[in-house]
Design brief:
With 94 residues, this protein is of the alpha+beta class. The chain contains 3 helices and 3 strands, in the order H-H-H-E-E-E.
């Protein structure tokens, strides 16, 4: 599988994970995230930024604000707190 095909598949898995969370199926979303991460590792690709930041590093579920993640802005950072207790912080600029 070439890197172009792998990158397209990762994008497709990101869309499927987002749709699974919207449909209320977090376990299916978790599987899509795990598949995408494994595929990216195998082909030495990085995950798209929107996907990497929306997936919990602790429980692998795709995060949807208001449903399974709390998003706050503190001291120049975006703080995402998942229902599992995992926290991710990302800088932002004004």
């Amino acid at each position: 599988m070439s890197t172009d095909i792998a990158a397209e598949r990762i994008e497709r898995l990101a869309d499927l994970a987002e749709g699974a969370v919207a449909a209320g199926e977090p376990d299916r979303s978790r599987e899509y995230v795990r598949l995408a991460r494994r595929l990216a590792e195998r082909h030495r690709l990085s995950l798209p930024k929107r996907f990497a930041r929306a997936a919990c590093d602790r429980c692998d579920v795709y995060q949807r604000p208001g449903r399974n993640v709390r998003v706050r802005v503190q001291h120049g950072q975006v703080v995402r707190r998942c229902d599992c207790g995992g926290t991710a912080r990302y800088p932002y600029r004004d």
